[in-house]
Structure formats: C-alpha cells, structure tokens
Amino acid sequence: MPETAQFVDPRRWKALIFIALAQLMVVLDATIVNIALPSAQADLGISDGNRQWVITAYALAFGGLLLFGGRIADLWGRKQTFIVGLIGFAAASAVGGAALNTGMLLGARALQGVFGALLAPSALSLLAVMFTDPKERAKAFGVFGAIAGGGGAVGLILGGVLTEYMDWRWTFFVNIPFAIVAAIGAVAVIREPVESHNSSRLDIPGVILATTGLVSLVYGFTRAESDGWSAGPTIGLFVAAAVLLLAFVIVESRVKAPLLPLRVVADRNRGGVYASLALAIIGMFGLFLFLTYYMQVVKGYSPVKTGFAFLPMVAGMITGSTQIGARLMTRVPARLLMGPGFLVASVGMLLLTQIDLDTSYPALILPGFLLLGLGMGTAFMPAMSLATHGVEPRDAGVASAMVNTSQQVGGAIGTALLNTIAASATTEYAKSHAAGAPSRTALQLQSMVHGYSAAIWWAVGILVLAAVIAITFINAGQPEGGGAVAGSGDGAAEDAVPVMAH
Predict the structure, then answer these.
(1) Which residues form the Major facilitator superfamily (MFS) profile domain (predicted)?
(2) Whole-prediction pTM value?
(3) Superfamily holding 10-192
(4) For the segment 28-84, what is each residue's pLDDT rounded down to a tens digit?
(5) Whole-angstrom Cα distance, residue 109 to residue 94?
(6) If pLDDT is split at 50, 70 and 90, which confidence band does 345 have?
(7) What top-level class would CATH report for the domain 263-474?
(8) Which one is predicted more confidently, 127 or 148?
(9) Is 488 exposed, middle or buried (0-12, 13-18, 19+ CB in 10 A)?
C-alpha cells in the first residue's frame, strides 16, 4: 500500500470544519441566487430573455471546468488550489453583489463558476487523502454528504431571508465571510501528503475537448428549455457535445498523462456512482424549482416561509447522512444503502405528485419532504465515499471532479428536461380545460399545478432508475482497511458529492 495511504493528519478534524464550510458556500450558491433573482432582475433591469443567464453563466463555467479544476488540484496541490478557489470565489461574489448592470452580474456569476470548479474538487479530494481510517472516513463523509445533499435547500432558506429582510445583493456578499474564515482555517490547519501530488504535464488537448464538450452539453440543455428540443441550435449543440466528448475519450486513451485517466471512470463501482448520482440530481433539481414556485405562486408563501418549508428535507438529509449512512457504511455494502435510499426518496417524490391548489403542507408536503431527505441523505453518504475509494492518490482530484461533474450535468439536464415536461403539460391542460374554467386565474393556477405534478411523476421514475443502477452496477463490499485513496484505481470506488451545483 502506498505510503500516502498511511498518512494520518492530527489536525484532520479541524480541517474538516473549514473544508465543510467551503463546500457549504459552493452548494448554497447553486440555489441562494434563485430566490433573489426576481429582485435582482427588477433592480438591474435584466430582460426576461437574459434572466436565465444569471443561472446559466454559473452552470456553464462550473460544469465545463470541473475536470480541469480537479486535475489542477492534483498538479498544484489540493491545499493551494483550495485556497485560490476560496479567494477567487469571494472576489467574484463581491463583484456580483456590487453589480451595476446586467453584464457585470453575469460576468461575476461566470467567475464564481470558474473558481467553484477549482474549489469543489479540491475540497473533496482533501478529505479523500486526509481520512484513511474507514470509521473516521465514514464520519467525515457523513458530514460532507449532509452538506452536499442539504446545502441546496439551506440556500433557499438563506436566500429568502436575505432577499426579504435585507437586499438581493447579500445573497452574493454572504459568501465573503464564509470564504475568509475557510481560507484562514485552511492556511492554519490543512496539510496534505506531498506524495499525493501528480507531477505529470497538463493534458492541454484534453482540457480543451472536455471543457468545450461539457459546455456544449450543458448549454444544449439550456437552449432546449428555451427554444425546444427540435430547434436547430439545440440539436447542433448536442451534436457538437457528442463529437467533442467522443474525441476527448479517444485522446485520453492515447496520451501519456491524460486529464481524465480512463481507469477512474472505467471501474464498475465508480461508474455506477457517477450515473446514479447524476440521475438523482436530475430529479432533485426539478423538485426544488417546482416546489419553490408552487409554494410562492400557488400557496402564496413569502420567500422566507418558502425557504423554511424546505427545512424538514434538510433535517431528513442530515439524519440520513450522519445517522444512517455514516453508521452503516462500514457494515453494509454501498448498494444496499444507495438503492434503498433512492427508493425511499422516490416514495417521498411520489407523495408530492399529489399536490393540488388546496394541498395541506402538514398532511402531504411535510411527509414527502421528510422521506425525500432521509432517502437522499442515506444514499449520498456512501456514494460520496465510494467515488474516490480505490483511486490512486495522484488521481483523487480528478475523481472528485467527476462526482461534481455528474451532478452539475445532471442538474442542467434536470432543470431543462423537467421544465420542458412541466411547460408542455401545463399548456395542454389549459387548452383542454379552458371551456369549463371558473376564471382565468383559477385555470392558470390549476394548469401550473398539473404541469408540476406531471414533471414530478417523471422525477419519481428517474429516482427509481437511479436505484436500479446503484443496485445493479455497484458491487463493492464493505469497506476494509484504510485505503480510501490507496488502491490502484481498480478496486471499490468512493465518492464525493458536491455541488449541487447545481
């Protein structure tokens, strides 16, 4: 076993605090801006056509550069990359909060994505190389998994509070103290084994192909949402993405020091983790979006009340991750946590397909949120640990980036796919029920709820598929030994969820 696997940092638990804080900042940013967007749009005069770019600019930069950021972490060192990512993210957030016009805000969001792509994989891979004892690793990834799973919902709460009681600009400024504290802590307590660095030359062709391919894919789904799936630009982007990513695979199989060593993704367990996580995030992103609009537009909740309505989901995720997943991860094969976890989440999602104009929050939405949170938290915990398990230390950064990439691409697909389904179902319902509607407003609201319900049914099916993939492909047994990142790359896998990015 490599010497790196035996490295035990006496300050690793203190380091976890600052790594978790940085991860929370990145995950929060995926949703905190959503609730503030209407206020920002009105304040800066952003057109309806450009509104989506406040979200898309971040997603394109973050999703497109994650693999590059993961490899940079392996080359530069994870601590250095982590600190640079924190400082850059804080600076970009300051620019966003001080934005005077649309261009300044969009540029800040793109910069947040760039530095987030450095920060997210370096945070996860730091855990992978610092926590090598299986029981300690389970606890560390339990904390990290709870943040990765529940941070998006926390962002909705915090975004609502800041927007309603302060100003939309604080959804950007709030990142600055997070980043400063995390950076100071990182300098003081984080250490990583020098032997885990990868001194290979950077694979420039791989960087170009992976970045342009992923950007084309994410942007293709964004255009599908606005222009339709059969539109020329949408099809062109998907074709370009397929060509570029295929070329990327060919290049990676031939170069001496690839950006993404194919051994990282070829492993059956890691491949199963990446695929099932991507599918789970597709369902989750759609739910956040639909339920936010449902509670504010249909139920008349304030932004703050809407945010707090998601709290039971966050509590469920934390409980599932730290009390179920972390406790059982060293005793039960990962597939027997991930598969049932996704199925429990799908039952919660199934309850939420029953929403109507007069749905009771305590009777239907609350139990749906609790089941969804418990299931996702239980599944995310072993997934995050499994995705980097058995990876060579020099590949820990890029393996971590693959988890974030699968989530980010899953989020883009989920938002576009489920939004398109919801919009189509809404339009069809409005047309078929126009004659008997008591009022135009009632018809609009009922049509909207019908569209949300139709899309959530799809999310149920997607979560069931994630469970099937987890149970079928992931065959790793109970974690043994301390080799979290000590294998040769062909053993059981271990993961790290980020970012929600979404």
Answers:
(1) 15-478
(2) 0.77
(3) MFS general substrate transporter like domains (1.20.1250.20)
(4) 777 788 777 778 888 998 876 677 788 778 877 888 888 888 888 888 888 899 999
(5) 11
(6) very high
(7) mainly alpha
(8) 127
(9) exposed
DSSP secondary structure, 370-421, as one string: HHHHHHHHHHHHHHHHHTTTT--GGGHHHHHHHHHHHHHHHHHHHHHHHHHH
Q: And the tokens for 189?
A: 């307590």
CA–CA–CA angle 203, 208, 213 (5° rounding): 125
Q: How far apart are CA 36 and CA 353, in angstroms?
A: 27
Q: What DSSP letter does each residue of 88-155 carry, written as one string? A: HHHHHHHHHHT--SHHHHHHHHHHHHHHHHHHHHHHHHHHHHH--SHHHHHHHHHHHHHHHHHHHHHH
Pull the structure tokens for residue 271: 């491949």
Residue predicted with more confidence, 496 or 125: 125
Domain-wise residue ranges, the chain: 10-192, 201-256, 263-474
Q: Are 74 and 398 in contact (CB under 8 A)?
A: yes
- Report which DSSP code applies to 260: S
CA 355 to centroid of chain Cα atoms: 26
- Whether the CB-CB separation of 145 and 384 falls below 8 Å is answered with yes
Q: What would the two tokens of residue 399 be?
A: 């393996």
Q: How far apart are CA 156 and CA 1, in angstroms?
A: 44
